[in-house]
Design goal:
single chain, 352 residues, alpha/beta, TIM Barrel, two-stranded antiparallel sheet, 13% strand, globular
Length: 352
């Protein structure tokens, strides 16, 4: 059934065509949208913005970068201790980004991948009902103290970055037909914040710190374009980057996002850990999703999938299925098993 499955975003293949040909035929009937796999440097999610956008910006100074490999520059950090660090140059009040609509790279990649999508749709590789999904990290997941560690710098960088992201979204919705498009806000740092995981910031007030960007950016997306949210516990360094005891804070942020988006929200994706503890899932009963479709990230460790599905159904009676996150940092050789897991999940769901 269309909409029973969702793909969060990233896939460790080289091209959008490879991604869509791999996932379109076996899963397309069950998807409402399909991503391009966030191929290339987008595989590294927000990390790639360090060397593609922030490095060399005239208003920023490089403090630290990944340690070279035997004297040869390294672009991708090894782990969280190897990240790029930047500071805003003295005297700069607001960091601005030029080439509006193109500077961040999201619009250019989306428009190029959409050509692949519509071509494969004409060929019948992708079913007629499926939309093209563009997954975009929200501002607070990009401009963080992990990259801008000096006091006061977030306030100097975030407004300009948000303006640049606004222009990218406007470019995307201008160039891609609305009835063929779905946009997803990716929220990782925001989830970390509401669980009290950002150093120096209390969990109290976290929703207020993060909801403004959603309220300002979501109305830019026209009503005929589908809008969704992916809430994430993080995968850099291994899944999960942090493991909360329950879904309470995630549900609270999801409720606030839906209430403040300024337009209809079409779906919400919330990950699930490998646990059958009822207290972990119980907050789902408080989800106020309005007309949005809930997707639970239950597709992992299929040995316990049926048990987790059974417990989750006690608190959320109607939901679709997805993995806990994208697959960008797994080995490509694991992808056939990923496909098998999704198909098995559908069979188990139908039988139960």
């Amino acid at each position: 059934m269309a909409g029973n499955l969702m793909l969060v975003g990233s896939v460790p293949l080289e091209t959008a065509e490879q991604v869509m040909r791999m996932f379109g035929p076996p899963l397309g009937a069950f998807l409402q949208s399909i991503p391009d796999g966030e191929v290339g440097d987008r595989r590294w999610w927000v990390l790639r913005l360090s060397w593609q956008v922030f490095l060399g910006h005239p208003d920023l100074e490089l403090i630290k970068r990944p340690v070279p490999d035997n004297g040869v520059e390294r672009l991708v950090p090894r782990d969280r201790s190897d990240l790029y660090w930047f500071r805003v140059k003295p005297g700069v009040k607001v960091v601005r980004f030029g080439d509006p609509g193109w500077r961040l790279g999201f619009a250019r990649d989306a428009i190029n991948s959409y050509f692949v999508f519509k071509t494969l749709k004409k060929e019948g590789v992708i079913p007629p009902h499926v939309r093209f999904q563009v997954s975009l990290p929200l501002v607070n997941s990009v401009v963080t103290t992990a990259t801008f560690p000096e006091t006061g710098d977030l306030e100097r960088v975030r407004p300009g970055y948000e303006q640049a992201l606004h222009k990218e979204v406007a470019q995307i919705v201008d160039m891609i037909p609305h009835d063929d498009l779905a946009i997803q806000w990716d929220c990782s740092w925001e989830i970390t914040d509401v669980y009290g995981g950002v150093p120096g910031l209390p969990a109290d007030g976290a929703i207020e710190r993060n909801i403004g960007q959603i309220a300002r950016l979501s109305p830019v997306i026209p009503s005929r374009v589908m809008l969704g949210f992916h809430f994430c516990f993080g995968t850099f360094g291994g899944w999960p980057r942090f493991a909360p005891s329950d879904l309470g804070a995630a549900v609270a942020l999801a409720n606030a996002a839906v209430a403040n988006a300024g337009r209809k929200v079409d779906w919400i994706h919330i990950p699930a850990l490998d646990t059958i503890d009822e207290q972990f899932y119980a907050p789902l009963a408080k989800l106020q999703k309005q007309d949005a479709r809930l997707y639970l990230g239950l597709i992992h460790n299929m040995k316990t999938f049926a048990d987790r599905l059974k417990v989750a159904r006690k608190y959320a009676t109607a939901f679709g299925l997805g993995a806990y996150c994208g697959f960008g940092r797994i080995r490509p050789a694991s992808l056939p098993q990923v496909l098998e897991d999704h198909i098995e999940a559908l069979k188990i769901e139908a039988a139960n």
